[in-house]
Amino acid sequence: MQQPGRLFFFCGKMGAGKSTRSTLLAADYNAVRISEDEWLAAHYPGQIQTFDEYLALSKTIKPFVKGHVQQILLSGVHVVMDFPANTKAQRAWFKTLCAEVNCAHQLIFLDLTDEQCLSQLAKRRLEQPQRAHFDNAQVFAHVSSFFEPPQDDEQLNILHVANSSVLHA
Question: Which GO terms describe its molecular function (predicted)?
């Protein structure tokens, strides 16, 4: 039986560089990259205007994404998921996904300051003006209020990247 691929996923506040790093990591490992933003935009174009709409629609794609990712992992291919693992519940979903197919995982925790994240969001608004309604200080503060840094008791393989220089695509 073939060894399953490894699942890589990210934890970090808005603007920490999760999407940029997921792209680079997928290239480094010749892995399949799956982006929640891309899937949501393809399935629900123009329908996400608020954080609550994002949460609701994100839940609708998770069962399909989970099965799809597990099939890829079982084929021996590594997967990089650009989906948030910013709460204990979100990380539990990833952990279950891995446990069900007995694959290794790596959680990359991008631990940047709020100032670094807000600076990155400002750059992203200039580069992607269509995201300005969502990538702003008010939404950052709201979303960050739910953020839970990973803890040792979650039993995850964590790569902690603290206050790193952020790569921006």
Answer: ATP binding
